């Protein structure tokens, strides 16, 4: 990687030109420039502002317990959003993440409860199944050169069908899991810090983001992922094996979906083939609000975590205030549009 | 050259044409043959169109219809939408049924208003149309409706909850866990029925949420699944930790609500009531997770529907509605292990025998 030109050095001339007429710049321009340098600040600012606003509007909102409850509520979709962000960073999109998650929770449950496989092995097989779904998506995208949108639209249907087939459309009840496979509900285990009640599922989500943060910013693999997402042709010219990088991204995303599946069992209690029908779109929502560009190669991996939290804060705040649920949809819609508009606006700095 | 190529092309075309004609005539004769056989057998055909193929309720409905059709020698075609609300697939199914010349169509409509037009074409073609489970809008767009009395289903669990709580009912703290933001008729009927049964002034009985009774903490939606039930219950408990009675639209939502209560350590002192009568739900009644549930009978709805079509095909008999109702009531029973005076109920054992899914 050492012979790759340093992007900061490259940008220097442009910045010097900008400095030349600095005294003409309005405050808005400076904000725009600041946000361009620190793209994660947009979701952070939105999160802080919405926390303050709902703290004022909704009674009981600002307790340690309620804030930790929001974390519990976004843990599953947040983990899924981590998988989604990886794919979106490569300018792809994974419409199958939700279906993969539900499918794997069913696989784990069927193996452990109905087929008598020891629970730890059932979990490992479930995670392997996640890797396999990722490998399938990755294979179709890299080898058959199908667009990710189409590929995962197809596999979404396939995985849903497998999910209904394997589950026999039946729910495995919470009480059955307690009796026969309590380890499947591990991530639902609660612990208390101060007044905050967290679950291991929340810890899992934070760990997944921390590991991805490290992998994307401190390893060669991470730089390749960004490079492939930003411009696959120049990445290939620079000697990056783009197909291999893409395949690895889908594989890792599949494994993270597997972890999210395990976490979802703890959260929901039972294993239901009809749960999380909108998880695909919810994960994309978190990623977009978190400021990762759908055009690939831009945005911080921490953004989607904050994006998921913003949606959680809005839902919790509006619910606590007793507002009709339709306004939650309404607010989420405007948040998405706002996020993309901001993304477009701060991009203008570079053009 | 030019002429040569032209001849070649012409020869190619004539080959294609001959092949096509041969194939077409083969297909045609096959068609004539099958039609001939079908006419010779003179079987009655019927259609079942459900909202989805994945919900155990509709799976059971299909089972009931198939069994009855086999018994009566009726040829049954089944169709389903991809998801709840998938109107287009249902409309195509209706058109296929008309084309197939069926005697009757059984349908649980995803869009109760939009399906009226395609169904009126079916009725114009002399087909008997029966709405199962979900009444059409207007209800007389179908020749008959075989359904659970959802208001009665709600009223039963409301009356049971009032009886169970006794004097404490005056200070109840009630959470209402409904289905979706669009407030479909099933939401309104069960919710209002529950409140009426519990003895709350519902204001306009056709409108949810216009009640002013201070015992109601609030309502939220669940999408009718476990995750939604949990989320909604958590939010309502944040609004009022003192909630002690929870109405749920169905048993998966109830299971989710129970998980939330368990995480708050409140599972012992909150009563949950529900509607459906699915096997996991009745099992939850047996284990005390759900206090009482109103059981519906999808299998019966479907088998009655097939019988009605058979009767109609034989001599044009039309089904009759239940007394005092605009539809044919397929029955509902309160299932509880803790019977209350003045509210008729069946035991958990009987509920388990008659459960579905």
TrEMBL record, chain A:
CC terms in the record's Gene Ontology section: plasma membrane
Check the record and name the PANTHER family matching this protein.
ABC TRANSPORTER PERMEASE PROTEIN YPHD-RELATED-RELATED
Please provide the record's keywords in A-Z order.
Answer: Cell membrane, Membrane, Transmembrane, Transmembrane helix
For membrane topology, the record states: Multi-pass membrane protein
In its keyword annotation, does this UniProt entry include Transmembrane helix? Answer: yes
The protein in question is named ABC transporter permease
| GO MF assignments | transmembrane transporter activity
Annotated CDD domains: TM_PBP1_transp_AraH_like (cd06579)
The places in or outside the cell where this protein is found are: Cell membrane
**Transmembrane region(s):** 38-57, 95-113, 120-140, 146-166, 193-216, 245-265, 286-314, 326-346
Q: Does the keyword Cell membrane apply?
A: yes
TrEMBL record, chain B:
The record, for Gene3D superfamilies, names:
3.40.50.2300
**What Pfam families does the annotation carry?**
Peripla_BP_4
Q: Where in the sequence is the signal peptide annotated?
A: 1-40
List each copy of the Periplasmic binding protein domain by range. Answer: 48-313
Its localization reads: Cell envelope
Any single GO molecular-function term of the entry would be: carbohydrate binding
Q: Name one GO cellular component term.
A: cell envelope
What keywords were assigned to this record? Signal
PANTHER family attached to this UniProt entry: ABC TRANSPORTER SUGAR-BINDING PROTEIN, D-ALLOSE-BINDING PERIPLASMIC PROTEIN-RELATED
Family of this protein: Belongs to the bacterial solute-binding protein 2 family.
Query: Can you name this protein?
Result: Sugar ABC transporter substrate-binding protein
């Amino acid at each position: 990687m050492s012979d790759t030109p340093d992007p900061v050095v490259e940008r220097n001339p442009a910045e010097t030109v900008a400095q030349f007429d600095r005294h003409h710049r309005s405050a808005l321009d400076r904000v725009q420039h600041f946000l361009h340098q620190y793209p994660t600040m947009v979701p952070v600012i939105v999160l802080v502002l919405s926390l303050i606003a709902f703290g004022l509007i909704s009674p009981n909102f600002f307790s340690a317990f309620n804030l930790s409850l929001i974390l519990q509520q976004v843990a599953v979709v947040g983990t899924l959003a981590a998988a989604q962000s990886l794919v979106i960073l490569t300018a792809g999109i994974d419409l199958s993440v939700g279906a993969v998650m539900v499918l794997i929770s069913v696989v784990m449950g069927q193996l452990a409860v109905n087929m008598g496989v020891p629970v730890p092995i059932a979990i490992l097989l479930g995670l392997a199944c996640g890797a396999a779904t990722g490998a399938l998506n990755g294979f179709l995208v890299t080898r058959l050169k199908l667009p990710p949108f189409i590929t995962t639209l197809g596999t979404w249907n396939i995985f849903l069908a497998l999910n209904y087939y394997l589950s026999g459309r039946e729910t495995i009840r919470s009480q059955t899991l307690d009796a026969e496979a309590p380890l499947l509900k591990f991530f639902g285990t609660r612990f208390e810090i101060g007044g905050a009640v967290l679950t291991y599922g929340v810890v899992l989500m934070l760990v997944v983001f921390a590991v991805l943060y490290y992998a994307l910013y401190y390893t060669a693999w991470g730089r390749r992922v960004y490079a492939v997402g930003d411009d696959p042709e120049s990445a290939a010219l620079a000697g990056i094996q783009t197909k291999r990088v893409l395949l690895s991204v889908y594989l890792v995303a599949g494994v993270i979906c597997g972890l999210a599946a395990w976490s979802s069992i703890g959260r929901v209690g039972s294993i239901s083939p009809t749960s999380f029908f909108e998880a695909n779109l919810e994960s994309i929502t978190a990623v977009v609000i978190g400021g990762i560009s759908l055009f690939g190669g831009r945005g911080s991996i921490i953004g989607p975590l904050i994006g998921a939290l913003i949606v959680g804060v809005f839902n919790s705040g509006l619910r606590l205030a007793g507002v009709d649920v339709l306004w939650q949809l309404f607010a989420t819609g405007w948040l998405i549009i706002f996020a993309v508009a901001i993304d477009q606006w701060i991009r203008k700095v570079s053009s | 050259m030019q002429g040569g190529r032209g001849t070649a092309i012409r020869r190619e075309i004539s080959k294609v044409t001959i092949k096509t004609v041969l194939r077409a005539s083969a297909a045609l004769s096959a068609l004539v043959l099958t039609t001939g056989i079908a006419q010779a057998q003179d079987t009655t055909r019927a259609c079942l169109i459900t909202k989805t193929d994945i919900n155990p309720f509709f799976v059971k409905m299909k089972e009931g219809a198939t069994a009855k059709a086999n018994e009566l020698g009726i040829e049954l075609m089944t169709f389903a939408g991809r998801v709840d609300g998938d109107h287009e697939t249902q409309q195509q199914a209706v058109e296929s049924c008309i084309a197939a010349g069926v005697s009757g169509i059984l349908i649980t409509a995803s869009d109760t208003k939009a399906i009226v037009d395609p169904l009126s074409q079916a009725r114009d073609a002399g087909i008997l149309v029966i709405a199962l489970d979900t009444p059409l809008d207007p209800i007389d767009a179908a020749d008959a409706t075989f359904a659970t009395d959802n208001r009665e289903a709600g009223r039963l669990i409301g009356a049971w909850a009032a009886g169970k709580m006794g004097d404490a009912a005056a200070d109840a703290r009630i959470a209402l866990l409904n289905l979706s933001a669009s407030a479909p008729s099933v939401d309104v009927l069960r919710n209002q029925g529950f409140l009426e049964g519990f003895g709350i002034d519902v204001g306009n009985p056709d409108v949810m949420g216009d009640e002013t009774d201070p015992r109601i903490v609030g309502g939220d939606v669940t999408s009718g699944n476990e995750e939604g039930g949990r989320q909604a219950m958590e939010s309502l408990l944040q609004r009022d930790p003192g909630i002690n009675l929870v109405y749920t639209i169905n048993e998966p939502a109830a299971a989710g609500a129970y998980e939330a209560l368990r995480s708050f350590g409140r599972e012992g002192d909150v009563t949950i009531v529900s509607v459906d009568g699915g096997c996991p739900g009745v099992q939850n009644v047996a284990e005390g997770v759900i206090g009482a549930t109103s059981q519906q009978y999808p299998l019966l709805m479907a088998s009655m529907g097939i019988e009605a079509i058979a009767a109609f095909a034989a001599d044009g008999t039309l089904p009759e509605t239940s007394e005092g109702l605009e539809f044919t009531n397929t029955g509902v029973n309160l299932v509880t292990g803790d019977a209350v005076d003045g509210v008729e109920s069946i035991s958990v054992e009987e509920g388990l025998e008659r459960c579905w899914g």
